Amino acid sequence: MPEDVLMEARQALAEREAQPLHWYQCSNGHPYPIGECGQPMEQSRCPDCGAAIGGVNHRPAQGGRMQAARNNDATRPGHILGPAANRPAVPIAERALSVVATCVVRLVVHAAMVKAATNNQGVANVIDPRPPNPSLFLWQHLELDLQQLGRALGRSADDAALFMHLILHNLLTPGAQAAAGDWSSKASRRQWEEAFMVRCVNPILHRGLDAMLQQANAALHTDDRLSNNPLLQLLCEVVTPRERLDLDRLADLPEMWRHRPQINLESLTQTMAENQLQLPVLEKFLAEKEVLEAMRHLPDILRLQKLLITQYQGHIDVAEAMSIKVSDFLYKLPEGAVYEEFRQLVESFRITWNLIRHLLARTTSQAVPRELCQTTFDPIRTSLYHLLPIKRTVVPTSCSTALVLFLASAHNSFVQETQGHAAAQSSNTSRSVLLSDVNTAHVVCCHPDQDLLPLVLSHCCYSLAVGEGSRVDYDLPALERQLVERFVSGKPRINDEFETFVFRQETKNVAMYKSLRDKIPQEPLSKAVQMHILQELGTLTNVCSSLAAVDIALIFLATTGGDPNTPIREYLHRVLKMTATAGLHSMKANQHCRLKHILSLWQLLAVQRARMSLENGQDPFEDMPQQYGEKLDKSEARTLKEALRHVNVDSLLAELYELIAVAEEQTRLPEWSMMATLSAYIDDKNAPEVEGLDEHFPPTILLKHAYHTWRMVATYRPHEDQETSRRDANRLRH
């Protein structure tokens, strides 16, 4: 049965970390550690359910609970596999057990429970959740166990059942019997499982299984109680063959209905296990058939990521990406080549996800929600977010990111495995390729049925003798050598650095702006040019459209750089291929603005959009953190109004908006001084100081008042303030 591994994980992390870890759990009970003092300083998401965890400045995350995690083994007792229909068709090894041993243990357990359920209804009490019909429930598991055992052995259901008879017969021999197992602890249970596999399963599995099955079949058809059974004689091929066969009535010939062992990958795996051959590359190809099939689709998934980046980069936020369903996205595409390409790429993604999602669920390196790994890909239910290449540090990560990193790692493991193999000596295994440049020629592409199985068939010799069954001999060293030469030799390693998707709220961050300033030295626009641009733009629609174009340009320029004297208009339309209706909706901006002015232009447009939104009764900061939204009290508001009489209001408005809108790598704490933080921010980017800021701005105003402060500055009118002062002075005279 599956088991809880939290305590082992805690012990492993404790041995690795220099300082003790403090364990907490999210609102849904999933554990997570905090180091050092044990108090939260960063906010994140639970990798299991996405709930808020951690916090800021020793304060718990909104909606989270700083609840101590459990400190005990939570392995559930009893039968916890659920319905047989929920189990994968492909058998999976548990703990230190082999795949065959896992199938055998489960089959023995279910057989005992089926027997007990016929006489004792108390068996249902150990099944969680309790089924309405325990006997049928357990029988379905028993049937699946036998199917999985046959698949693991590469043999028919009859041979799998006979194999179990051999196991049970071996259990009765004195050498295989052991003292009653102690199952009270996890360690003792694992010790018993390993002893069972070594004493009871491996002797049958690794000591000529073919010969043992033939001997068992011979014992069956020579048994006096069964030897006169005509059907058994036909099945065991002890009937004298006919001299002439009626080829017109093939369906009536017993010879046509006899079972012949198939030559497939499972039977080859079993042959290698029986002979205990050391062929690591061939073993890896056979053990990772699903991964091999999935790796063929890696170039398609990367192509899908590039197209989605081109279409949505910087245009949507996380909430929008989560709300858009894949089916809705495909429905809105125009019919023709574009739709067909996206449909095929999404289909490749679907096939890949459904192939290896159960492997991702067992991989701790990618924080994919376990609930997501348990469901198949459905375009109607799956959001567009999971097709986007999200940063690997974001929790929860997207399915697309997890798939790409998993497949790149799997490819590299195949390349690594073949190093030193004679067939790969002539190839250059040290070269690498960027993930963004990967194509089909770079990837280990080997479909299990279309590529691997034909090679197996070409390296085997199949013979058949009446009464003796079939015999299959393999040239396994030659098969391994050809696998390396055909599929792995010459393949480069894949560097897993890849272009990640940038959401709208991520387009503005200090690191990106610094990178752009380093690549393209910036100059401010003159006051006259700024006023001219704003007059030509006029409406909020034009301002927003122009700002959207500049936002996209900033993302690319921060990465690629450019000539400072290149006109922004030329960059938007010639380099970024924007349409004629997109871009800057100001003739003055198109004529005058160069790439060296782009940050000044962005600041101008962003502040103007915020001011116009405020005038229209809209919140200019609705997409930004609300920890800076505390209002000023009346005394602080009066002090700020007085200070604005001595400060350059336009410069303060622009720099304060940028401070709020541009995210810092480390979260700015709400209790920090606004004046000190703003001054330091302006100094870091080598911008001109705001006149009067250090001398007159109130030191009692903090970052938690940022939104309210900006609104007061945006609505401040010097002439109205002067008129109010004159009225107050006249009132005092009278």
From TrEMBL:
Query: Mostly located where?
Result: cytoplasm
Ranges for domain RZ-type come to 1-77
Read off the Pfam families from this record. Answer: ZnF_RZ-type
Q: Which PANTHER family match?
A: E3 UBIQUITIN-PROTEIN LIGASE RNF213, RZ-TYPE DOMAIN-CONTAINING PROTEIN
Key word Transmembrane present in the record? no
What processes does the entry annotate via GO biological process terms? immune system process
Q: What is this protein called?
A: E3 ubiquitin-protein ligase rnf213-alpha-like
Tell me a GO cellular component.
cytoplasm
The Swiss-Prot or TrEMBL record annotates one GO molecular function as: ATP hydrolysis activity
Alphabetical keyword list: Cytoplasm, Immunity, Metal-binding, Zinc, Zinc-finger
Q: Where in the cell is it found?
A: Cytoplasm
Gene (name only): LOC109482763
